[in-house]
Amino acid sequence: MERNKRSNPFRKYLGLKDFESKDGIFEVRIDIFPDLLNFSGNVHGGVIASLVDMSIGNAVHPNLKENQYSTTVELKLNYLKPLNGAEIIARSYLLHKGKRLLVGKSDIFNDHEELVATGTATFMILNKENKKL
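-> structure tokens emitted (133 positions)
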């Protein structure tokens, strides 16, 4: 089931399609279009990094209270092979939930279900009352 609750212009530009979790694993998909490709015709590494960050954010979000939000404080990524084809699939889940930090993992697959990248991200939990705009 697609979720539209968490939307912003960058997510819309990439065409992220969020799906509900199954057993704590959140799946996000992107249809590949020409703007996402680098000079060699593969998906740009920055797109993959953004997908890792946002897909782990989907796993973090349900763990926040109404008065909380999160921000990424660390992102690590391993590119395993070039990514091309019609679609990118990210499957993400939490590895650790502490009082202030959550750590998640995301595996990135091509449309043939081949693992092309893997990454982790650490998110800090913050309170909305202390947020300075």
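The mean pLDDT is 91.
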